[in-house]
TrEMBL record:
<feature type="transmembrane region" description="Helical">
    <location>
        <begin position="35"/>
        <end position="54"/>
    </location>
</feature>
<protein>
    <recommendedName>
        <fullName>Transporter</fullName>
    </recommendedName>
</protein>
<keyword id="KW-0812">Transmembrane</keyword>
<feature type="transmembrane region" description="Helical">
    <location>
        <begin position="159"/>
        <end position="181"/>
    </location>
</feature>
<feature type="transmembrane region" description="Helical">
    <location>
        <begin position="74"/>
        <end position="92"/>
    </location>
</feature>
<feature type="transmembrane region" description="Helical">
    <location>
        <begin position="104"/>
        <end position="122"/>
    </location>
</feature>
<keyword id="KW-0472">Membrane</keyword>
<keyword id="KW-1133">Transmembrane helix</keyword>
<feature type="transmembrane region" description="Helical">
    <location>
        <begin position="6"/>
        <end position="23"/>
    </location>
</feature>
<feature type="transmembrane region" description="Helical">
    <location>
        <begin position="128"/>
        <end position="147"/>
    </location>
</feature>
<feature type="transmembrane region" description="Helical">
    <location>
        <begin position="187"/>
        <end position="211"/>
    </location>
</feature>
Length: 220
């Protein structure tokens, strides 16, 4: 295993830890949309990590892990981040707090839509464009979130989310359209992508509650 593969493995471990830890924190604080989406990212990362570790020795089992990770990655890129996570963030920007039943329904509908996304023949060609478009919509919402953060005096968190938004959009564009030269195995891209997503999950957690606290102070 060379240094590039080692860094990819470590970045995957980082993603798993950030997803489970901060997903659990969101759940404990009542935001199930963000909490479970972060955990889905972590579970996807867990299966990707297992695949990277056993693909040479146990290809049959590794194929199952890869399929799970592939589906959950499609879910997060197509619906989980641009729809579910945005709805979760709207709890603090728009006081959008659906019931537990509606939270569950949102996940059921978006999971079903993901099956169509990756199985339907008519989505094969437009799929990369769909992913980038949805990530663009998510980035536009983040721009609004950044503006709101700055408006309540949380300028450092606004800057932190700006960095995360830029990294996320860069990764989304590289994913299907701008492969890194010389990165045939995509381990360099994988490292960049997983570290970027890890940073995004942590930064949004702290920015979310910083915004919530700032709002509470202003109301008083």
């Amino acid at each position: 295993m060379d240094i590039k593969e080692t860094l990819a493995l470590l970045s995957c471990v980082l993603l798993v830890l950030c997803g489970y830890i901060y997903g659990a924190k969101f759940v404990r604080r009542g935001n199930y949309l963000l909490g479970f989406e972060w955990m889905i990212v972590a579970f996807s990362g867990s299966n990707l990590l297992i695949w990277m570790l056993i693909q040479a020795d146990l290809p049959g089992l590794a194929k199952i892990n890869y399929s799970i990770s592939y589906f959950l990655d499609a879910f997060s890129r197509g619906f989980g981040i641009p729809i579910v996570a945005v709805l979760g963030l709207m709890a603090v920007t728009h006081s959008f707090k659906p019931s537990a039943f509606k939270d569950a329904l949102i996940f059921v509908v978006t999971f079903a839509a993901t099956f169509v996304l990756i199985k339907a023949d008519f989505m094969v060609k437009p799929l990369p464009y769909y992913y980038v478009t949805m990530w663009g919509v998510y980035t536009l919402y983040l721009a609004y979130f950044i503006w709101k953060l700055a408006g309540v005096g949380e300028k450092w968190h606004a800057l932190g989310v700006t960095v995360g938004a830029a990294l996320g959009l860069m990764v989304a564009c590289i994913y299907d359209f701008f492969p890194i030269p010389g990165d045939e195995t995509k381990v360099v891209f994988l490292t960049i992508a997983l570290v970027s997503w890890s940073y995004m999950m942590v930064q949004l957690y702290y920015s979310y509650f910083a915004f919530e606290r700032a709002k509470a102070v202003r109301i008083r």
